[in-house]
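Q: Could you fold this chain for me?
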Amino acid sequence: MQALLIGATGATGKDLLDLLLQDNSFDQVTVFVRRDLKLVHAKLKVHVIDFDQTEQWAPLVKGDVLFSCLGTTLKAAGSKDAQWKIDYEYQYQFARVARENQVKHYVLVSAGFASSRSLFFYSKMKGQLEEAVTALSFPKLTIFNPPLLIRKDSDRSAEVASRKILHVLNTLGLFRSQHPLPTEILAQAMINAAKSQASGIRKINGKAIWEYAGVSQ
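A: Sure. Below is the predicted structure, expressed as structure tokens.
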């Protein structure tokens, strides 16, 4: 199987890339990044691209499955417009090109509360992206809606604080469906979903992500 990956430098993307390179089901892994990964592997192909120059990278988007882990925070992006460009426009354009190039399966990391009807910018943006890529009619579309992610060595203070609060609530038996999820568990679930023979649209969240990864919550 030939895998395509965008977002390989983020927390989930890094874990996913490591697992893909170790997995014998994938004989080639092609990543599209803005800066060189400085990583060498026999089955790894790295394309350093400008996401705004679609015509330059479009012919390279060919494979069996596209994994999309691209995303940023509002703080890192600097504005809602900049975040929209990365989290929505770049991901949608890549999905559109992949569909045109006959990529059969699209695996998207969305958000736990994604909804195009949300009053919150981030959740609404993610919901709009889900609807847009669904309209592309991939033979197989898998959307992951993970809860708060546990990133290795995270320095995001709000994320660390939220994780501690959720831990206390989970201990009390509350919000179990929003139990924080390690990025490596999400990455393994994505790979297992890619190997599945099931067709059509699947949305996977909460406890089901752990089950897809083959790990007890």
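A (continued): The chain has one domain: 2-147+181-213.
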